[in-house]
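Narrative of activities, Objective 1.

The group set out to show that a structural description can be obtained from nothing but a protein's sequence at a throughput compatible with the screening campaign. Below is one input-output pair from the validation batch, recorded exactly as produced.
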Amino acid sequence: MMTVLTTSKLRPGGEQEWDAAMRDRFESAQRMPGWISGQLLTPEDDPLSRVIVGTWNSREDWMAWHDDPAFLDKRAVLEGLESAPNVTRWFSVVADARVGG
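Output recorded for this entry:
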C-alpha cells in the first residue's frame, strides 16, 4: 500500500472552484482499481494551500488513474487555479489504523 501527498498553492479567489474540481477527481478515483482512500486538507494557518492525501494499493494504480479521462478533464482547471506547480511525495504505508478496522 502506498500513500501519496501532493501539496498545491492556490491563487487567491480560486479556492472554492479548486476544491470542487478536486472533489470531482475523488469521485473518479473511487471507481479506479487500487483506490483505497483520499483526503483534501487545508492547513489552519495557510488557507491558500491544499494537501491531497491519497492511498492506493500501488503506485501503478495511481498512475493508471492519471490516464483516466475524468482525471485529465480537471487537470487544466486545477492548474489554472494554482499559483505554483504542485509537489508530490510518496510514502510506503508501514501501519494503517481506522475506525472499525
